[in-house]
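S.,

Sequence below, as promised.
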Amino acid sequence: GYHPKYVPPSHYPVVPRIGFTWSVSSLLNAKGSLYFALTPSAMMAGMSLSFLFQYAGDSLLPGVRASLDVGADFLLNWKPYHYAVNTSAEVNLDVIFHTFGTHEVSASAGADLELWGPNLGGHASLHMKIWFVKINVDLSFGASNTGATPLTWAEFQDSLMPPVQAQPDSVDAPSGSTHWNYVTADVTSGLVRQIQGADGAQAVTYNVVNPKDFRITTSSAIPITEVQRGDGSAWDGVAYGALKRTGLGVTPMDTGYQRAAHSLRLQRMNDSTGQFEDAYSDFTTPQLYAKNVPYAMWGTKLLDPSKPASLNQASLIDDTIGGVFLSPGVPVLPSSSQATDRDKFAYETTSEYTVFSWQAAGSFTPDPANTANPTDLLDNRRVIDAVQADMLAADTQATRQGVLDALGFISETFNLNQDLAQYAAFAPRYGAYTPDA
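The prediction came back faster than expected:
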C-alpha cells in the first residue's frame, strides 16, 4: 500500500495493505492494516487498528456500543532529508437505556498529532463531546513547517553523484576538474584485445580494435541537452528528434537547468610530428541514445513530504539524452569501372620452347650413422611417429606458443599444435645430396 495522499503512477502495482480481522468474542471485534512502500523519492509506512464492542442490552442492562480507532502514517524524503508523521486516536461511546422508553447518551474524544522536521515541530488537536457539549483544543509547538530545505550543489554532488576520484594523467580534462568522471567513454564494439604498456612512468592500456566494428559509447551522469565539439562549437548534423531536452533540473535543489552540453574532443596522433590533431572528420556524426532517469534526481520541482501532492510526479523522466555512439567514418567506396572496348582484350598465342631448363635430380646418399634414416616401410612408420611425438611434446608446444605470443598472434587464430607429421608419406632422411654436373 501507499501513503493516503500519495497517488502512485499508473505502472506501479496496486498492492493491498496487509490486514486482519479478528472476532475476539460475540461482543468484541478487531481489525487492522499495515503498509510499507519505497519509491525513488520517498519511503512511506503506516498502520491502522480498530476495536468495536457492541452489547444490545435488555430490560435491566443498557445497550453499549464502544469503539477505538488509532492510526499512524509516516513519510520520509531523504534528499533533501525531511519527514512528516501523522497520528490519530478516536474513542466513541454510546449508551442506550430502555427505561421509560429509549434514551441514548453519546460521548467521544479524540486526538490528532502531526510532527515534521527537521527542525522538529508539530501540531496537536484535542476534541471532546459529551452529549451536546463540545470542547476543542489546538496546540502548535517547535519549528514551523516550512517544508524541505533544498540542497546546495556541493551537497548534491557529495550525496548523489559519482564519488570524487583522482584524475589519471591519461585523462584530458579541464585544469582543476574534481568531478571529471561524470562522463565516461568505453569501447563497446570492435575491441580485439588490450595491450598493457607504459608512457614514461605512467601505465597505459592500448586498445587494439577492428575498424569495421569499432564503436565508442559515452555516458553522462547528468542528462544532456546538446552535443558539441571540444572547442565549444556546435556539431552540425546531430539528430535530436523527440529526445527530451527541456523540463530538466536538479530535484533536490528545487531548480531547473536550461543547458547541459556534452563536449567531445576527438584527436589522433600525427606519427610525423608526434602531436595530437583533431580527428572529427574520421568519425561519423554522433548518434544519440535515450535513457530514462528518475524524477527524484532530475526533475524541476522539489519532492516535499510536507506537501504530499508534490510526490505524485511521474517516477521517471523518459527519453533524455544519456550519451552518444561514435563510429569511424564510412570508407570511400570504389566507383564503377570505365567501359573498355572488347578488341582491347584480343590476343595472339606465341610458342616459346626455351622457357624451362630441366636438370637431372642428382643423387642422395643416406648417412648410415644416423639412426633416423628408415630402412624399410615399417621403419619409415616408426620414424614418422617419432617426429609426430616430438612436434606435440609439451615443451615443444610451450616454446612454439611463446614465439607466437612474442609476435602478437592470437593462439585461437594461429594453431600450429597439430598432428602434421601424420600426413607425411615418407619420413625425413638424413644424408648427403650430390647434384649432377
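Residues 269 and 276 are 4 Å apart (CA to CA).

Coffee later?
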